[in-house]
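User: I'm writing a tutorial on reading structure tokens. Could you give me a worked example: one chain, its sequence, then its tokens, then a sentence or two explaining what the tokens reveal?
Assistant: Sure. Here is the example chain.
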Amino acid sequence: MNKPLILVVEDDKPIRKLITTTLETQGYKYHTAETGASSILEAASRQPDIMILDLGLPDMDGVDIITKVRSWSNIPIIVVSARSEDRDKIDALDAGADDYLTKPFSVEELLARLRVSLRRIRNDTDKLQKDASIFTNDSLKIDYAAGCVWLDAEEIHLTPIEYKLLCLLAKNVGKVLTHNYILHEIWGTHTYDIPALRVFMATLRKKIEKAPSQPKFIQTHIGVGYRMLQV
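And here are its predicted structure tokens:
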């Protein structure tokens, strides 16, 4: 695919310059916005492929921007913020952000997060071109219609909860899902049993990961949630 158009929403001039210079050296196209209001206008008019968003803008909280953009767009949103508390990360991710990078950050890490988002875009495009009932990720294959899972062409047997967890992660590949989001989707609105979720995730990993302590498919974000990696 061609280099995507990236919208950089950042009011701090040195950091904005760092990000845009990094993008420019990698051949990315970009536009910038310094306020929440202008970021929403830019997102609507230019329809960027990815948004890099600071939460601490002068006129609007970044979480509110995420909520507004998510009401009409599913573009990947990478938060870059000085807020480092788990609660801030969870709020942004629950609002619909795809990733969260804490300042100060390295340009290499920013580029890595962009590559993750690009893989998600490519994966979404591939899904439209392929049979929507089949998901493949390296040696992992899920047949949604049949309710079956294969690893290295060998069928593996999952419990109903394990299968639901795996499907939820696969359908959001590349995106960090918070504990509360997963619990809501799998068990319902009033269940917030994170220890139980960790147990089910551990048993799922034992079945699909060759080295559960060094997972290939399911990445843990400590204190926040989990992400299915696009291998």
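What the tokens reveal: The chain has a mean pLDDT of 89. Helices lie at 13-25, 36-46, 62-70, 86-95, 107-129, 160-170, 179-187, 194-208.
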